[in-house]
Design goal:
The protein has four helices and six strands; from the N terminus they run βαββαβαββα. By secondary structure, the protein is an alpha/beta fold. It has one domain: Rossmann fold. It has a six-stranded mixed beta sheet with strand order 2-3-1-4-5-6, sandwiched between helices. α2 runs parallel beside α3. It is globular and about 45 Å long. The structure holds guanosine-5'-diphosphate (GDP) and magnesium ion. The site of guanosine-5'-diphosphate has 15 residues, from α1. Belongs to the TRAFAC class TrmE-Era-EngA-EngB-Septin-like GTPase superfamily. EngA (Der) GTPase family. Associates with the 50S ribosomal subunit. This is GTPase Der. GTPase that plays an essential role in the late steps of ribosome biogenesis.
Amino acid sequence: SKPIVAIVGRPNVGKSTFFNKIAGKRISIVEDTPGVTRDRIYAEAEWIGNTFTLIDTGGIEPFTKDIILHQMRAQAEIAIETADVIVFMVDGREGITAADYEVANMLRKANRPTLVVVNKIEGKSLENNAFEFYNLGLGEPITISAQQALGLGDLLDEIVALF
Ligand code: GDP
Ligand code: MG
């Protein structure tokens, strides 16, 4: 079956914006509960002959209203269990947060191919913001602007190289 790429990261880092830029055909996955679909979070995607399933873990609704950190842990666990490649998205304008470190620790221990993607980098003057994300201990940060579709081709090259 197709490789699975899961997007993980804090609320508002740009996961949905990225998902919508990359998503081709949406896949409706019908849950056991009648009427419940998760078609907003699964999509089929393709990059130079490589097809894969993309999951926006931010769209997975928690069963209870929980604090952000608990939600992120749950989303990261789902990604670790199901994904072949994890896109760990961070906000290049806000910098590293405690929740980012927490998720980074989980992903490091899981030892699953993971790319640190620094979003909201529009223009050269913001490129330097990416360096601090080396501190997450997950390798070289990749800069993109999901909104302006900058760096997406290079990122997709790196994703499919990990399949
Ligand atoms: P999510 O909560 O991680 O899914 O984040 P969203 O995709 O909903 O985006 C959160 C906010 O960040 C929205 O206001 C977006 O317009 C904005 N945003 C997303 N991507 C970018 C980007 O590349 N650059 C900038 N400047 N803003 C972005
Ligand atoms: Mg979202």
